Every structure is written in C-alpha cells, then in structure tokens.
Amino acid sequence: MASVPVANSFQTDRRSVRRWLVDCPASLRTTAGTHHGRLTDLSEKGARFEGPGLPPEGADAMLDWGLNEVFCRIAWRKDGACGVYFEQPIPTYLVEETAHGVEESSMPVAQCGNIPLGQKRARLGTSSTD
Predict the structure, then answer these.
(1) Residue in 99, 95, 78 with CA at minimum distance from that of residue 86
(2) Is 78 a residue whose pLDDT tops 90?
(3) Which residues pair with 72 in a beta bridge?
(4) Are residues 40 and 50 in contact, defined by beta-carbon separation less than 8 angstroms?
(5) Helix (H) or strand (E) holding 94
(6) A GO molecular-function term, please (predicted)?
(7) Residue 129 domain flag
(8) 130 in a structural domain
(9) Is the alpha carbon torsion for 112, 90, 80, 108 positive or negative?
(10) pLDDT tens digits, residue range 88-125?
C-alpha cells in the first residue's frame, strides 16, 4: 500500500464492503513465526483473526485458511484478536464460499454504509433522553 498510516487506511475502508461472520481454523505466518487461531469474520478487503500471541500492529503476514493463502498486514490488535487488511482484495466468491461453509443461513455482519463513520450506536436499554 501507499505510505498512508495503517490505522487510517483500515478505518477508511472498513465498511466499504460487507463483512461475513465465519468460524474456521486459520493461521497467520510472519517472519517471527506462525500464529494459529480462528478466522471470525471476512470480507474482500480484510478479516478478523483470533488467537494467542498475535503479531504486532503493522506487521506483514500471510493469512492461511483452508486451501487459501492471502498476503495481509495487521491493522490493529486487542484482547486476543487482530484485524488484517489484504494487499489486494480477494474475490467475492471466496468470501461467500468461506461464509457458507460455516452455515448456509449465514448473514453478513455489516452491510455497506450500514454504520456511518463518526457515529456511535445507542446501547440497548438506554434512551436518547438519558
């Protein structure tokens, strides 16, 4: 990618495509070693990976799941999970095959434009007058 800060690049693009809920074994390979865990959401531009001892933010990695292998960069890391974004978008059919491999009735986690940037969602059980 261009010399744009990692966090800003990921935040700008993070809702431009649908994210699908998935649950499959995966690994992140870096120059420091291999990190085994689970892929928990996936889109054409990135994914969420959960596991122990994750690589630091900004690290380059290879994300492997099933027969798939994609070059990525760690966008963020927190509480045993990290977000990755792909150098090149992956095909939509690959995302859908992975999502439908989990459960045929799988629904997208978020639709394009579903959550406006800069706005928080109201918490359940609170009203706008609180």
Answers:
(1) 95
(2) yes
(3) 61, 86
(4) yes
(5) helix 92-102
(6) cyclic-di-GMP binding
(7) no
(8) no
(9) positive
(10) 999 999 998 888 875 443 445 555 555 555 555 555 55
pLDDT above 90 as % of the chain:
57
User: What is the greatest pairwise CA distance in the chain?
Assistant: 52
Domain that holds residue 86: 6-110
Determine contact, residues 70/83, Cβ cutoff 8 Å.
no
Mean pLDDT of 39-66: 95
**Read out DSSP for 71-98?**
EEEEEEEETTEEEEEESSPPPHHHHHHH
Q: Is the dihedral of CA 21, 77, 83, 8 positive or negative?
A: positive
Would you say residue 125 lies in a domain? no
40 touches 28 (CB < 8 A): no
Please report whether residue 41 resides in a domain.
yes
- Residue-level pLDDT at 99: 86
Separation between Cα atoms, residue 6 and residue 25, nearest integer Å: 25
Residue 57's Cβ-count burial label (10 Å; 0-12, 13-18, 19+) is middle
Q: How far apart are CA 26 and CA 62, in angstroms?
A: 10
